[in-house]
Amino acid sequence: MLQFSPILLALIYGVIMYRFSVWRTNRELTGQSHELLDPKLKVLTDRMAKALEVAKIRLHLYEIDPVNGLAAPDGKIYITRGFYRKFTDGEVTAEEMASVVAHELGHVALGHSRRRMIDFSGQNALRTALAMILSRFIPGIGGWIANMLTTLLAARLSRSDEYEADEYASALLIKSGIGTAPQRDLLGKLETLTKSSGGAAPAWLMSHPKTKDRIAAIEKNDARWHK
Is 178 helix (H, G, I), strand (E, B) or coil? Predict the structure, then answer.
């Protein structure tokens, strides 16, 4: 029984971390956001809503400066103040912003948002269990090895999710009559936009697939669907 105690402790830790992460995320987003009412964006989100056969796509403005769009575990779509400022300043077009919304809708529809929260707690549980077990056999570096393995796993999951969300967004943008050009154009300038909003590219961009690979995948899907 004792030999299984690290795994049991890790599972308990994972459940606790999942509950805490959901609570903390929802609390932060709710406290720092409000509905984004922009007439230019509404024209495009209404077209996407029609393509999805839903009444409305509701956007929320998250009052933080980093350039980002995100989908919460409860399905709400957020655009950060920093990203919205790029739009109002003319650095990003309405169609490019629509491609961000379509991408985040993909994360919701494909279950990534909720799964990522589970992955976060699961990765911590796995990291804890591995660290406990490996430290018994490899004192001193067992924890480091556990951290490296779980980090690689998280990066692989993140890259897979991004490709899937890109594909969903491309299909939605085509069905809405917007097309994939804004999606590709935005990816081409995304790193520059994020750096101009506050120094180095953020960690979430580092864990994403390479921009050229994402653009190539979008172009491939676009060509396949327009045959």
Answer: coil
Please, which pLDDT band fits residue 200 given cuts at 50, 70 and 90?
very low
Q: How far apart are CA 50 and CA 153, in angstroms?
A: 37
Determine the average pLDDT of the residues in 39-43: 97
pTM of the model: 0.72
Q: Is the CB of residue 217 less than 8 Å from the CB of residue 167?
A: yes
Q: What is the pLDDT of residue 134?
A: 60
* 25 and 117 Cβ atoms separated by less than 8 Å: yes
Give me the pLDDT at residue 1, please: 46
Residues in the chain: 227
- Contacts of residue 39, defined as CB under 8 A and 6 or more positions apart, other chains included, come to none
Please tell me the distance from the alpha carbon of residue 208 to that of residue 161, in angstroms, as a whole number: 9
d(CA 96, CA 27): 29
How far apart CA 103 and CA 153 sit, in angstroms, is 22
Secondary structure class of 210 (helix, strand, coil) = coil
Find out whether 166 and 103 touch, Cβ atoms under 8 Å.
yes
Q: Quote the radius of gyration of the chain (alpha carbons, Å).
A: 20
Instruction: Indicate the domain borders of the chain.
Output: 2-225
Helices in 32-141 by DSSP H: which ranges? Answer: 39-52, 81-88, 94-109, 112-137
Q: What's the one-letter identity of residue 76? A: K
The pLDDT mean for the chain works out to 79
Give the DSSP H or E segment for 7.
Answer: helix 5-31
